[in-house]
Amino acid sequence: MEQIFVPRVLPVKEYFAPGHRGCQGCGPALAFRHMLKALGPRTILANATGCSEIISSPYPLTSWRIPWIHVAFENAAAVASGIESAYKVMMRKGKIPQERVNFVGMAGDGGTGDIGLQALSGALERGHDMIYVCYDNEAYMNTGIQRSGLTPFGASTTTSPAGKISKGQPTWKKDMPAIAAAHHIPYVATACASYPLDLYEKFAKAAKIEGPKYIHILAPCPTGWRCGSDETVEIGRAAVESGIFNLFEITNGKKTLSLKVPERRPVADYFKPQGRFRHLKEDDIAYIQKKVDEDYELLLSEVE
Amino acid sequence: MGKLTGIEVSIACSEAVTLCDVDVIAAYPITPQTHIVEHLSEQVAEGHLDAEYIKVESEHSAMSCCVGSSAAGARTFTSTCSQGLALMHEIVMIASGLRLPIVMAVATRTLSAPLSIWGDQSDVMSERDSGWITIFAENGQEVFDLTVQSFRIAEDERVLFPVMLCLDGFHLSHVIEPIELESKEDVQAWLPPYKAKYRLDPDNVLSMGAFAMPDYFSEIKKQQNEALRGTLPVIKEVFKDFGDRFGRYYEPVTRYQTEEAETIIVMAGAFAGTARLAVDTMRAAGKKVGLVTIKVFRPFPFEEITEALAGAKTAVVIDRALSVAGPGGPMASEIRSALYHEQKKPAVVSMVGGLSGRDVFQEQFIELVERAEACVASGKIPQYEMFGVRE
Q1: pTM above 0.90?
Q2: CATH class of B3-246
Q3: Chain A residues 46-85 within an 8 A CB cutoff of chain B
Q4: Closest Cα partner for B20 from B44, B49, B45?
Q5: How many CB atoms are located within 10 Å of the residue A275 CB?
Q6: Under CATH, which number does the domain B253-386 receive?
Q7: CA–CA dist B131, B149 (Å, integer)
Q8: Contact, A105 vs A80, CB < 8 A?
Q9: Domain range for residue A167?
Q10: A39/B contact by beta carbon, under 8 A
């Protein structure tokens, strides 16, 4: 991705309105903004319960300049399925005009990979023409930074605290893009708001593909990751440049890297600004580095 | 005048849904609801019904899909019961809070444990605070007619609430009855196409399902409560209009032989058919016994119930559900509460039975009346009793 980022190539119009209640430096909010710039106004979004919903819809206010619905925590994929099916049949019956509308289901890492996994699997398997978005800030941030199945190994959260006999989260991060890809859907991608043009392009591409699409966004959360609110973008970059989070696409089963890092940075660079990894000792970091190296080699062997 | 047809009640329900030209069905199979969704699948597969049938992976997703579909403006139907209804509970409440006119047929069945596939009303009773219009059918004809009427009620702009139509699992869902099936033309002439007042539409941007802080929640809940209570006149209006068009009239509370009745049996659902025979037998023997059936359970028909029971000395309320270690029969508990401040009211005797597919025979109804009258005469009225149970 040796491109020059020119801000003017992105649409000026904002569909995620300023004035929302996200924390300073909110990674997810940055991602939503660019996501909606790519998808545009003919988009309907079903939002799971979580940070995204709480910061954007305190009655009677809303940050959403597209039709938007929140129902519950674990069912964004099912709600989006219902909306997509309704539009499909109403268009077929001539009740509403034929047009291309983007149907989006969105949840955080917990709402996607833990409590919402069943509904997501059902929706992907049924083949709805929709985009499912997981904005991954790696814990239940809305309720106060509790661990999820997507919290990375070693991260200290309020329910996986580092302590005398604990090194924080004891399990490796659940591989959601692989789970989504196992449904043999036409498009799976990972993205990060630190790479806004890449994120934008992936949504623009997904909007043109028929069938289920899954986009997984790493979205740093300064509050939960215990870092400065001005460090969101840099931490996202360090995640990608260290290979701890990789940008790729799987289009019709074909996996391609979006960004090949010439020389990966050590994971310690990524950990250093984040309080949630502060307790890790050198040998812990070496242990994680080894796993990241192995995973990255595996990834390289998979891409074409 | 419709065509009198011998047909399984579940199939008749599906036929009614087809005649109503629903747009979206999202359902997950569970005994004894299966024949309803199987027949609807066939209707779609054969091209008799142009609908999207979403074959979901759970009831939770069934109701979630229905919420999405209805919010998008489509006429939406689902069906479930028992564990399935319990699994969807979270979203059942949200469907009402979002004021979405979904219609759901519930082939009422026991809740586990012990696991039992057989029928009673414990599943529906567990949803009684969910904010749905709740209607009980007594026979196959009522299932057909009330399915059609449910859409008209739910989608009325003065209503906009989901409707739960309860038909007793097996005792109704799996029996074949002679039912007058109306024609597609007649049903569609009576039921206008659904045009949503509010829907998810890129041309009219709105947010649905915002969260409420304590400074708004109570007001919103009060509005929901008043709105649901206020649907009773519309329900009656729809019942009357249906009667005028098709010749079969419905009421929120039905009275049978209640004139000068000293004892009245109160209940809902299919077992009332047997109670009717028992009333005939007792009347023939000179006993002043009547029957009141509750057709509309939510909104609770306070006036209709108190009026229907005002002249009686004893009301025997029969529940096919048990509020465990609580007041016994949930319906009895509500009726007792509704009558509490009335000057003229019967003593309420709560009888719980017919659980999990256990039949209640004509003779048992007679025994229940005698037992209730004896309790009232002795002045010792139990909080509730379970009947037809081995010691």
Answers
A1: yes
A2: alpha beta
A3: 46, 53-54, 57-62, 64-72, 74-75, 78-85
A4: B49
A5: 13
A6: 3.40.50.920
A7: 18
A8: yes
A9: 13-302
A10: no
